[in-house]
Amino acid sequence: MTNKIKKTQSDQAINELLEIVAKLRDPNHGCPWDIKQNHKSLIPYAIEEAHEVADAIKYGNNEDLCDELGDLLLQVVLHAQIAKESNHFCFEDIAKSATKKMIRRHPHVFQENKRKSLKEVEKIWEDIKKIERGEATKDYTFSERLLKKIRSKAALNGSIYISKKSIDNGIELNKKEDLWETLVREITSLKNEIEKENIKEASNILGKLLFSLINFAISHKLDPEESLNKSNRFFLNRFNHIDSNKNRVEIQSLSKIDRKII
To answer: How far is CA 238 from the centre of its chain?
Structure first.
């Protein structure tokens, strides 16, 4: 009886959210911002909400996480409503698709009922994904497999993935002993192009430099994502020092502030 009550409450909560989003998208009485959105325009919001979920997991509490997961769910419901209006699919289709996929990718739970090791489960998962994508019998090159994987990743994560997979497969994008020289050469090239105000070429070199830095980090077992997060927090601490002293001192160079807060 308790499970039935909980199911009814869950259904009610989901249905209420679906109704609210449908009203927001109503062309006559809805919200102008929600009405003008489409799948493409919502991309940055879906990414932002996913990052905020990750942030709540790392630094927040259960209340924060619940709130951010709600925001992420709202993105799913918005996409479902937009698709429903064009008769492409609806929220129920999304839920059914996820359910079928989980059952299909967990035969050891729903079919065999036989306990598997983590390594076996991961192999089953990857094999089934290949079959789903029609890749089981297709011979993809290494670069094609990488391209398919990084397509949905942010640029930083894509570079990290390429570097890791290259190392795992014994491919050296840059020899370890040459990494320092590569970085110095690319920094010098970037400086030259900036001085010449050649923005297009400077942009290309900056991309190569960033990739080389990520490759350098992975080669030395450093985490570029975490390192960048630490730097973000470090710079925010610098600005916090400015905020706390703005009534007593004039804005100083960050290098002077560094000496005070390091």
So the answer is: 27
